[in-house]
Specification:
There is one protein chain. It contains 25 helices and 26 strands. By secondary structure, it is α/β, with parallel strands linked by helices. The chain has a six-stranded parallel sheet with strand order 3-2-6-7-1-8, sandwiched between helices. Strands 11-10-9-12-13 form a five-stranded parallel sheet, sandwiched between helices. Strand 9, helix 10 and strand 10 form a beta-alpha-beta unit. The longest helix has about 50 residues. The radius of gyration is 42 Å and the shape is flat.
């Protein structure tokens, strides 16, 4: 029986229309004559979705008893017995009620597919197992229902149902997703624009990855090796040379021209593990690639052009970036080089040859003298380079090989001369060749060349006609002797090369291990200067390591003063570091310049040039650690000064502007009342008294706010939290505002749980929030106060339809002594919101601004619910109620475990 096909509609968030689109597909198939049934669908009370069920056959659900309640699930046996061509099964990640055949609904779908039934299903991106923790980090809402990514990836078709975040929020505000009682909480939490944008990007990227997999599988199944330019992929080849940074930045600019292009960096390493690349340079270039949004790869191959092109074709790359050759003219004549060979074989892949200062054997002219620019690294700076004629063998081995030459060659000559006539010339040459190879294996090229020349001369004199003369009569003997010298030289060269490669491999391994430890310390946050200096001392076996800084004084001149130092016991000397640091006791001083004003000084043994290169990485990191330490210290010192200065300046500004008006009004009113030359009526006297009283009230509130804010900043504010109901706090808060609050719309449910707060402080917070909303709300759209529960917290929202606040300036409104966008200072000193947030946080709550759907500002006051104050029959926080078989609400089961934003 052929297996059924699975079609999945993927959405970034609830409410984007997955179920509607899937039911529309079911209608299209039914209209074409396909046998389609509804196995399970959840409309969530949405009328348009429910209308899509018309004219489609629905298999009745099965009823399951669990914890004293009746719940409904898809009747899998009934669907299998009905055997339709297509079954619609909603919510693929749903957890079945205990007692069902399978624990998850996607298990039911797998059984339907195995029975040859095609299935149409839906799933949200937050239910994918690989993205579960990512979504929780973004939204703060845990998703307990997940489906393995492989189940969705193996679907025959996955269709994305997409919707812009703003459009989805409008659908939510219009009541097309949830009921009115859930809209405010959903918009303020899960359905924020940032959350929806992030979820949308996750869905698009996940689907793009599946499409890439499908394309790669199709190309592999059909044997398509050529590049398909479905998306620009730029590969940059790195050798670890100094030109790497230039190539990476150029490749990044090329990739940036193609929107959505990928940047991949690749380094080709030798198959024998020996490489001439600088590990420190490769590590730095890898960090540069990743900082530019690219990825770093390393492949193994002895033929660099072949390895590069195989990697590029495997990644479906469209462009390849190479650096121009650093070889000299003679080398280019003898061999075309990697760049030319790669270009010839590239086929449909575009190859960019990028010039750089090191190209074509160019070297910057050396500059001497103090203050001259450092020479750019060239061929002689590449790791693994050795001057010609120098071997990597120890001198002791060369001495032994020379001794063997002086001993074995005369002894062999004497032996062959005594047995003259027993062996022919070929055998005698092989004997000398064996001695030469032995010497080459021991001492390398120099002793082997000496042995080959001596052996050829002795063969010529004693065993080649005419004997005992330095001439060769037979031309074949001359060729044989020449070949003898050539073979001996080649074998000795191979031995020397192998020894040199071994030394390079050992050094490269040590350097890589050292740099890995250094990088690991940086990643773990061990950037303290003493820790880095101690690690350098231990790595190189030194007695002491000191970072010196230059100070210029007009009187004392230039001095180098220690910034940080570490001492210990040398691994070799075993002496304590407390003695003299001079050279009299055989100690060496290694001086590594870091920059013009810093240098790293090590005391102990002398270091090779290659060790200095690794030490330079420690020195550079030490300089960075010193700069970071000083910047943090400077920032810590400047922060309180700057904050105090801002507060002082703002307070002076507030006093000069905001206190002047009520003081002037009160002063004028009192002066008129005390005047003896003005006859005042009773009404005029009452009006002046009211003006003075109102002005003094403003001054009193201002002083109280200033005192409370200072107590908050000093941590001296007294808070007495206790359970209190919002319905007991909101009315007196509005009464305190006065007649202006009569237009406010209040929607606070009576069954809300109590909150744990200080009633007096909470009342002041609500007064400040409502006053702020009244100031900016249009006359025809008064502010609205709503409240709802979210988990174990209660949220009060003060909603206005005014101009709103840009997202980047929302935190700014909570700074004291300012009013965002105000041009005058007649409406207060800007302490209301700052004081409100401080009082809220003192009570253990939060105060955050949000956008009102359609425009405006919503201030969300979140407070912890008082323990044991949840209304009877309410569901546990974070759970979703299941429906009973008769349609009445059932008990919440943790197997659903979802907030409203988690429903499909």
């Amino acid at each position: 029986m052929p297996r059924g096909t699975l079609r999945i509609y993927l959405g970034a968030a609830p409410g984007v229309g997955k179920t509607y689109a899937a039911l529309d597909e079911a209608h299209r198939r039914a209209d074409r004559g396909t046998d389609v049934v509804i196995g399970f669908v959840e409309t969530h009370g949405r009328p348009r979705t429910a209308a899509m069920l018309d004219d489609l056959e629905t298999v009745p659900r099965q009823i399951l008893e669990y914890r004293g309640g009746s719940f409904t699930e898809m009747d899998l046996d009934a669907v299998l017995a009905r055997r339709p061509e297509v079954a619609f099964v909603d919510e693929l990640a749903h957890t079945n009620v205990p007692g069902s055949r399978h624990p998850k609904r996607w298990h039911d779908v797998q059984e339907l597919l195995a029975a040859g039934i095609d299935v149409i299903s839906t799933v949200n991106v937050q239910h994918l197992e690989s993205l579960n923790d990512v979504v929780e980090t973004i939204t703060g809402v845990p998703q307990r229902e997940t489906v393995p990514d492989d189940v969705v990836r193996r679907a025959d078709q996955v269709e994305l149902v997409d919707m812009a975040p703003e459009a989805l929020r409008r659908r939510m505000a219009h009541g097309n997703v949830y009921g009115p009682e859930k809209v405010d909480a959903a918009l303020a939490n899960y359905f924020r624009v940032g959350n929806l944008t992030a979820l949308r990007e996750l869905a698009l990227l996940w689907l793009a990855g599946k499409v890439d997999d499908q394309l790669d599988r199709y190309r592999a199944d059909h044997g398509i090796g050529r590049t398909w330019e479905t998306r620009e992929r730029v590969v940059v080849a790195l050798t670890g040379g100094p030109e790497g940074d230039t190539l990476i930045r150029r490749a990044c600019r090329i990739a940036a021209r193609g929107r959505g292009a990928d940047l991949l960096a690749v380094h080709v390493a030798r198959s024998d593990g020996l490489t001439g690349a600088d590990p420190a340079a490769l590590a730095r270039q890898r960090a540069l690639v990743e900082s530019l949004g690219g990825s770093y790869h390393q492949v193994i191959g002895d033929d660099v052009p072949t390895a590069l092109l195989e990697f590029a074709r495997a990644e479906n790359a469209t462009q390849l970036v190479l650096g121009a050759s650093r070889r000299g003219r003679l080398a280019r004549i003898l061999s075309p080089g990697i760049g030319a060979t790669t270009t010839t074989r590239s086929g449909s892949i575009d190859v960019h040859m990028v010039t750089h200062p090191e190209a074509w054997g160019h070297r910057p002219a050396p500059a001497g003298g103090e203050g001259a620019a450092p020479r750019r690294p060239g061929r002689h700076d590449r790791p693994g380079w050795r001057p010609r004629g120098r071997t990597a063998l120890e001198p002791r081995r060369r001495i032994i090989a020379t001794g063997l030459t002086l001993a074995l060659v005369p002894a062999l000559t004497a032996g062959l001369t005594a047995s003259r006539g027993t062996f022919n010339l070929t055998t005698e040459m092989l004997a000398y060749l064996l001695v030469t190879v032995t010497v080459a294996l021991v001492g390398g090229f120099g002793p082997a060349l000496l042995c080959a020349v001596a052996s050829s001369l002795l063969l010529n004199y004693y065993f080649t006609a005419p004997v005992t003369e330095w001439t060769i009569a037979d031309g074949d003997n001359a060729l044989a002797l020449l070949g003898f010298v050539l073979v001996a030289s080649l074998v000795s060269q191979v031995v020397s090369t192998s020894a040199r490669r071994y030394e390079q491999a050992v050094r490269a391994s040590a350097e890589a291990a050292t740099l890995s430890v250094l990088a690991g310390s940086v990643l773990r946050g061990e950037d303290a200067l003493p820790a880095l200096l101690a690690r350098a001392r231990e790595t190189f076996g030194m007695i002491s390591v000191t970072l010196l800084e230059r100070t210029d004084d007009d009187q004392a001149g230039t001095e180098w003063n220690p910034v940080a130092t570490t001492t210990g016991t040398s691994d070799s000397g075993g002496q304590d570091a407390g003695g003299d640091d001079g050279r009299d006791d055989g100690r060496e001083i290694v001086d590594i310049p870091v920059r013009d004003d810093l240098r790293l000084v090590l005391t102990g043994r002398s270091l090779a040039a290659a060790d200095r290169r690794i030490l330079t990485a420690f020195a550079a990191q030490a300089a960075v650690a010193l700069d970071q330490h000083r910047l943090r210290a400077a920032a810590a010192e400047a922060a309180p000064i700057a904050a105090a200065d801002r507060v002082r300046t703002a307070l002076l500004t507030a006093v000069s502007h905001d206190l002047r008006t009520p003081l002037a009004a009160a002063k004028a009113a009192v002066s008129c009342l005390r005047g003896v030359d003005i006859a005042l009526t009773d009404d005029e006297r009452d009006e002046l008294l009211a003006t003075a009283d109102e002005s003094l009230d403003k001054l009193t509130r201002l002083v109280e706010n200033l005192l409370d804010l200072s107590r908050l900043q000093a941590g001296a504010l007294s808070v007495f939290p206790r359970p209190v109901g919002l319905d007991d706090i909101v009315p007196p808060s509005l009464d305190e505002i006065g007649p202006a609050a009569n237009s406010i719309i209040v929607r606070v449910p009576d069954d809300l749980p109590d909150v744990r707060a200080d009633p007096a402080l909470l009342e002041r917070v609500i007064v400040n929030l409502v006053t702020n909303a009244l100031r900016y709300a249009p006359a025809d759209a008064p502010p609205v106060i709503t409240a709802s529960t979210l988990g174990d917290r209660v949220e009060l929202r003060v909603v206005d339809s005014g101009p709103g606040i840009p997202v980047r300036q929302r935190d700014y409104v909570f700074q004291p002594f300012q009013r965002l966008g105000d041009r005058d200072n007649t409406t207060g000193v800007g302490l209301g919101l700052a004081l409100s947030r401080g009082l809220t946080e003192a009570m253990g709550g939060t105060l955050t601004p949000d956008e009102t759907p359609g425009g405006g500002l919503t201030m969300v006051l979140s407070l912890p619910a008082a323990p044991g104050s949840a209304p009877p029959g309410s569901a546990p926080p974070g759970s979703a109620a299941l429906s009973r078989a008769d349609g009445s609400p059932g008990s919440a089961v943790d197997q659903a475990g979802r907030l409203p934003g988690d429903l499909l």
